[in-house]
Amino acid sequence: MSADNAYAVELKGLSFKRGTRSIFNNVDIRIPRGKVTGIMGPSGCGKTTLLRLMGMQLRPTAGEVWVNGQNLPTLSRSDLFDARKHMGCCSRAVLCSPISMFSKTSRSRCGCIPSCPKK
Question: Which of 12, 16, 71, 72 has CB 3.0 to 4.6 Å from 65, enough for a Cys bridge?
Answer without folding.
Answer: 72
